[in-house]
Amino acid sequence: MTSVTGASSGFGRLLTEIILAKGEIALATARRPEALQDLVPQYPMEQLLVVKLDVTKPAEISSAFAAAKEAFGRIDVVVNNAAFAALEKWKLGPADLHPLNPSLIFTRVSGYGQTGPWSSRPGYASVCEAESGFRYVNGTPDPHTGGLLGPPIRPNLSLGDSVAGLHAAFGTVGVGVACAEGEGGAGSAGRADGRC
């Protein structure tokens, strides 16, 4: 069972849809759960649980985890798409959850990682695309200068969300495979951490 925070849009929504399409079980949490109501009739309640969750409200975090445990028995993977260290503030980070489920895989998706001077900044895909230079090289070429005619153009796909999701998925699967193969100990791949 996978728990996804921020499942109403962007990366969180995409990940939730992929999990469900693969036949896996998902706890989809969002500040606006009504944004997920189109998924509810498509999947049985044994596969999808939608829960209101504002990660700035500790009671809602506890309620979401309790609802998942009651509905599914346990949580195997947590995908944290919330703000930096939000879950740790309420004792729901990896160190707090691993004693409850030692094989829990905890995946974080952030723009700037969990440590370092920018770790507390939110990681919006468009900002990360601009900082990487990706936005700078997209647009209508100016044949006279070799630069762009006008400002950069936002592409029709969210490359930042897609790349973040791809790396988060690789990290999560990598830790899961290491655990399944009995490598034991603690594993880390990208932003996914797990103990086997």
CATH class: Alpha Beta
H/E topology pattern: EHEEHEHHEHHEE
The overall pLDDT, averaged over residues, is 81
How many distinct helices? 6
Beta-strand proportion? 5-15%
Uncertain spans, ≥5 residues at pLDDT below 50?
Answer: 184-191
Largest sheet: 7 strands, mixed
For the record, the count of structural domains works out to: 1
Q: Please give the CATH architecture.
A: 3-Layer(aba) Sandwich
Number of strands: 7
Structural class, by secondary structure, is alpha/beta
N-to-C span: 16 Å
Question: Your description of this structure?
Answer:
With 196 residues, the protein is an alpha/beta fold. The chain has helices at residues 10-21, 58-72, 86-89, 94-97, 125-132, 159-180, and strands spanning 2-4, 26-30, 48-52, 77-80, 105-108, 186-189, 192-195. The chain has a seven-stranded mixed beta sheet with strand order 3-2-1-4-5-7-6, sandwiched between helices. Helix 1 (10-21) links the parallel strand 1 and strand 2 (26-30). 31% of the residues are buried. The model is unreliable at 184-191 (pLDDT under 50).
